[in-house]
Amino acid sequence: MATEMDIEHRETTNNVMILLTDPEGTPLGAPMYLPQNAGPQQLQQMVNKLLSNEEKLPYAFYISDQELTVSLGAYLEKNKVSVEKVLTVVYQPQAVFRIRPVSRCSATISGHAEAVLSVSFSPDGRQLASGSGDTTVRLWDLNTQTPLFTCTGHKNWVLSIAWSPDGKHLVSGSKAGELFCWDPLTGKPLGNPLTGHKKWITGISWEPLHLSAPCRRFVSSSKDGDARIWDVSLKKCVICLSGHTLAITCVKWGGDGVIYTGSQDCTIKVWETKQGKLIRELKGHGHWVNSLALSTEYVLRTGAFDHTGKQFSSPEEMKKVALERYNKMKGSAPERLVSGSDDFTMFLWEPAVSKQPKIRMTGHQQLVNHVYFSPDGQWVASASFDKSVKLWNGITGKFVAAFRGHVGPVYQISWSADSRLLLSGSKDSTLKIWDIRTHKLKEDLPGHADEVFAVDWSPDGEKVASGGKDKVLKLWMG
Questions:
Q1: What are the φ and ψ backbone dihedral angles of 183, each rounded to 5 degrees?
Q2: pTM tops 0.85, yes or no
Q3: What integer pLDDT is reported at residue 13 of this predicted model?
């Protein structure tokens, strides 16, 4: 037991009492005294030791959502914090690899005859697909930076595209409400169009690879108010999810196996996928729900693939690796969901735990168009018609920073695989890359002749693709 004299003695030597916690708030050991000259490096050694990590892992440290980049003493002085308080320091694991910020346009590829409405890299980052107002889907060869296949069959604008997490299929949905499944190796359709929706397709999401391999099922959402689950091997709709009273604007198939739909009826519905029963409703938004994001989205999108580029010999092996990656990313915490709305606000939910939102996230001055969790689940970014991109804590939902620089509405955002950089594309014809640590603009990427509708950062971190009103696809490199 420490005596009062001991404590006094410690205070006179200017030690700081800190409590290390993980991002969920779970303490790592008891509060401890550290000398004021201790900084991130010393903390890193300590965390590795306390967690008994065999391989030393990189960590970043945060005090009330601001990264600690100086010694504890310098921090206390700068922020006028009392030495007598216990300082809570949050440790966050960082990606072991680092992504170089892209800084130049490496190719401008024409081919589409109308605006490019969507771009998406395959889960392994080796292929790229785009959907356009010219009714085609195109697949691009990233090595030669030239068109590979033009996939024809749609009769109207291609609004949505989505790769299966095993990389074996690409699905596209059109303004006419039909869906096509394509073979990425040939560019040929795998069967006839999938019909059933009465209005245009607003979103497509695949069943996670760790739940089912090879990938067979995906869900589509439509302006007709229904979501439909399709089986690509049966080539038909197996379940119709009905219940929304207005258009469904977005859909996500979660890691727990449930489907989330966001709608213009202001609700988010949660469905089970055996029979398509409604499990719960998430209410709170005062206007249309525009966008949904899952904290596990990056591992769901990439399945078994990671930055090492490993190839797999069987669907079983892929499923096993995908499950390991999913469990490691998710940890013991529930999967989180963020919704962005026309009411200028966002909500953070833990749908498996409660139908009440965890927090209401306010600050945007116009509708929130796109929300996206960082690959590590630590951050949420939001893009708005108020020309700003905002950064939030992905666990607490607290506001962290606003990125300003765009002079028009921001349409879409994408993260680098290491969660250190954020990409945004805007009506102002530019792409911008933001540094999450400094909260500053890292790269300004002009070059498009008109509005940028779609951006994607490849899962392997090597390249960025963008498309928009000027009909060209641009590739950007480091």
A1: -90, 115
A2: yes
A3: 56
